[in-house]
Amino acid sequence: MKDSNVVYSIPCENCPKKYIGMITPLLKNRLNGHKYTKNANTALDKHMKDSDHCFAFNNTTILNKDNNFHKLMIKEMIEIRKEKNAVNDRTDIMGLSRIYNNLITTDN
Predict the structure, then answer these.
(1) Is 91 within the bounds of a domain?
(2) Could you give the strand order of the β-sheet that contains 6-11, starting from the edge strand earlier in sequence?
(3) CA–CA distance from 79 to each of 22, 32, 37 (Å)?
């Protein structure tokens, strides 16, 4: 994947959980970082360690794109809030005001 400035979703191979992330350099490089970095402190790594599950990196989907970094951060928070099966920490959405909860619908 040669995309950059994207919000992406990586599904777990063993359960309905998903990891939502954001990357400004090439997505391919970030996915390799997720795959080969052991003992990292991300929610993705925590889910793999705690449940002995694997993520389907080849099934990564792009959820959103934006060249503006701040807009991309907000879009990532919205995608995390929308995804009921996100493994992301709740601190990942602390910057998103609850006033928007009724506007953010959950499709899942």
Answers:
(1) yes
(2) 18-23, 6-11, 61-65
(3) 10, 22, 24
Number of domains in the chain: 1
6 with 27: CB under 8 angstroms?
yes
The C-alpha atoms of residue 31 and residue 37 are separated, in whole angstroms, by: 10
In a domain, 105, yes or no: no
- Running along the chain, 108 residues long, what does each successive block of 10 average in pLDDT? 84 96 70 60 86 93 93 89 87 64 59
Instruction: Look up the CATH number of the domain holding residue 68.
Output: 3.40.1440
Closest by Cα among 25, 20, 26, 64 to 42: 20
